[in-house]
Specification:
The chain has 121 residues and is mostly helical. 47% of the residues lie in helices and 12% in strands. It has helices spanning 20-23, 33-41, 48-54, 60-72, 94-117, and strands at residues 46-47, 76-81, 87-92. It has a three-stranded antiparallel β-sheet with strand order 1-3-2. Helix 2 packs across helix 5. Keywords: DNA-binding, Transcription, Transcription regulation. Residues 19-118 form the HTH hxlR-type domain.
């Protein structure tokens, strides 16, 4: 039996450490990340509770973890105010803002094709 050769145009995905799809897109493609980025893009700064209320089916723990990840990857900034009770605000970084036109394009595509993915149709 002949061994299948990987086409040259597919080899770019095989190098796990250098594949842009794996190493960049995975940073913001989680279940909640894009929604959080969309919420933040519509406001200059947004408090934790406002994000939570705008995405009511996300748990506080998952929201916290997702925001920390987005901050680690440089897409979101977090500002803590020395007040009692503490006030924390989140906003997109410059890098995060450069991502938004692409996410907005995907959002527009999703709205246009939503019925194709609706299981109740």
């Amino acid at each position: 039996m002949k061994k299948l050769e990987l086409k040259d145009n597919l080899k770019k995905y095989t190098c796990i450490g250098q594949c842009p799809v794996r190493n960049v897109v995975s940073r913001f493609s989680g279940k909640w990340s894009m929604l959080i980025l969309c919420v933040l893009s519509e406001n200059e700064t947004t408090r934790f509770n406002a994000i939570s209320k705008s995405i009511p089916d996300i748990s506080p723990k998952v929201l916290t973890e997702t925001l920390k990840g987005l901050e680690t990857y440089g897409l979101v900034s977090r500002k803590l105010y020395a007040e009692i009770p503490p006030r924390v605000e989140y906003s997109l970084t410059d890098l995060g803002r450069t991502l938004m036109p692409h996410i907005q394009g995907l959002t527009e595509w999703a709205l246009e094709h939503f019925d194709s993915f609706n299981p109740e149709r």
